[in-house]
Amino acid sequence: MEVDLYINNLTEKFTPQANPEKAVQMSRYMKNLFDYYGIQATLRRELSRSFIKEEGIPVKSELFETLKKLWALPKREYQYFGMELAAKFKRKPEVSDIKMFEWIILHKSWWDTVDFIAANLVGNYFQIYGQQSQKIMEDWLDSGNIWLQRTSLIFQLKYKASTNTALLSRQIDALRHSKEFFIKKAIGWALREYAKTNPDWVRQFVSQTELSTLSKREALKRLN
Q1: What are phi and psi for residue 35, nearest 5 degrees?
Q2: With 0-12 CB in 10 A as exposed, 13-18 as middle and 19+ as buried, what is 111?
Q3: Residue from 113, 108, 183, 192 nearest 157 by CA
Q4: What are the distances in angstroms from CA 192 to CA 86, 161, 168, 186, 215?
Q5: 155 — phi, psi (to 5°)?
Q6: pTM of the shown model
Q7: 20 to 30 A from 139, CA-CA: which of 5, 45, 66, 99?
Q8: Which candidate, 128, 160, 157, places its Cα nearest to that of 218?
């Protein structure tokens, strides 16, 4: 299906469910950075499932174009649909997909999309193309962009015993003096999640590493 028609049909699915009162609340929760239809997550996912059942998903060659057009739309629900649509293709990612993921991280950036992209798309990508992770992570660290940096810290959230602790240590060491809330929080989150798998490693790392109060508190939240 032609991309514009596909998105127009999605609009016809979303528009009748708009809730102006909820839209104001949702926008306020996101610091008024985005407009919303006011469709809450459970209903939005039901609508998305129904839409995909009716319309299908784009062919892979049209995915990036579809995401760019979804990201150009003002209502935040389109970006949520887009990131979840991209996850439909994650079983067989292409090497070039990392550029697509980087693009959606860098546009309309906020934690609500970046965290999903990091843990579900980037994380899955590097489980398949792990040999590329070190160079890309170095580039993202050097970028100065807090959302690429946050992604480099949390993309292993679902790795459990497969976590590359040497890489995680390097990422944290490079960013642990950051004053950015989202970086300090991400450091603690990454450590807290890995503590579910290897609490002794996390305790030792925290004891031997100078971290911000926020990062340390988050890291040890379930261990103390």
Answers
A1: -90, 155
A2: middle
A3: 192
A4: 27, 14, 12, 10, 9
A5: -65, -20
A6: 0.95
A7: 66
A8: 157
Contacts (Cβ under 8 Å, ≥6 apart) of 213? none
Angle of helix 76-86 relative to helix 3-14, nearest 10 degrees, comes to 120
Task: Decide: residue 122, CB within 10 A, 0-12 exposed, 13-18 middle, 19+ buried.
Answer: buried
DSSP-assigned letters across all residues of 102-114? HHHHHSS--HHHH
pLDDT one digit per residue (tens) for the chain, 224 residues: 699 999 999 999 999 999 999 999 999 999 999 999 999 999 999 999 999 999 999 999 999 999 999 999 999 999 999 999 999 999 999 999 999 999 999 999 999 999 999 999 999 999 999 888 889 999 999 999 999 999 999 999 999 999 999 999 999 999 999 999 999 999 999 999 999 999 999 999 999 999 999 999 999 998 97
Dist. CA 224–CA 208, nearest whole Å: 17
What distances in angstroms separate CA 216 from CA 120, 147, 152, 198, 212, one per listed residue? 25, 20, 18, 16, 6
Rounded (10°) angle between helices 76-86 and 97-106: 160
